[in-house]
Amino acid sequence: MNQEFIEALDELEKEKGISKEVVFSALEAAMVSSYKKNFGTSQNVEVNIDRETGKIDIYALQDIVADEDLIDDKTQLSISQAKKLDPKYEVGDVFSKMVDPAKFGRIAAQTAKQVVIQRIKDAERDIIFDDFTDRENEIITGQVQRVSYGNVFFDLGKTEAILLPSEQIKGETYKQGDRFKLLLVEVKKTTKGPQIILSRSHPNLVKRLFELEVPEIAEGIVEVYSIAREAGSRTKIAVFSKDEEVDPLGACVGYKGARVKAIVDELHDEKVDIVIYSKDIDTFIANALSPSKVEKVFANEKEKSALVVVPDYQLSLAIGKEGQNARLAAKLTGWKIDIKSTTQYEEYLETENITEEDLYERYGCKSDFSEEAIENSEDSVDASDEIEKDEN
Q1: Domains, the chain, ordered by start
Q2: Which pLDDT belongs to residue 81?
Q3: Cβ neighbourhood burial of 68 (10 Å; 0-12, 13-18, 19+)
């Protein structure tokens, strides 16, 4: 090796982040393998490479033993023979003999090459694994490289990542060269190197997009309490503000809906409902059922179940198409929600032969759903509607 080789290692370290020490260690291990391959011996070998000049020193090592203890002349040297070489040798010392690497054969050289290449590949894989493991649950931008058997492979620069069918948005198309924002879900170690799993359907993708677009969320002034998502169709996100002077809805929507529009565009027009989180569960459930108006909420804290009453004309809106609105509200709050219209509610009381006060007592909750709660239940935004208003 010479100075040119040292410079090549410097370049490798800059481009791929692989430490020169990794390569030197690999070369030393390769020289040991080459020696044993070349000379067909199990003899102990020591290889030292000067990190500054690249000079290689290879030594065959033999333990010095008493003449009567000599068993293997490949790994041992009798004391009488050692004394002939240097009278200072004693039993227990190690005899080192320098070996010329230039005498290694072609097969040995090939073995060395394979060891070095494998060590460099392993080091590169470890660097990629460590780099992307630290970025799990973060947004990453990737370019579609290819689509194979429903799997979409993205070019991330240093490596490629995979978007499995289960992590894709239903109906979304992926063409070579298209760029997407994705959530890095998991990094796995495999025999072929790190496998990076991406997602377009994970609820946290929406959360990370809001963090990117809404400075108040990134700064921690406005916080995301929970998210419920049916990818490609609708998302509900509950937010609250730590600062009374900051309106969480206004912060998330942005001037003329600019902030939320960027998110909706990235999600290819997926509907986004932004609602206010409240510690008062009645209010939170009412907010979660937006855009429907809520008249009464009977909440059972112990069973985390609630009966919600809405105006007759709002029942279909509260339940949503194929039950989606009610389903997402239940996911958002973590409560089981039973929705009834005013008429159904009155029939229910009659059938059960109970009064409203009895029902409140049965659910173990307060005896009224306050006007303030009703007002707060209207504190929600259908982002898609807001965008349309601003555009018109």
Answers
A1: 2-131 (3.30.1480.10), 136-200 (2.40.50.140), 204-389 (3.30.300.20)
A2: 82
A3: exposed
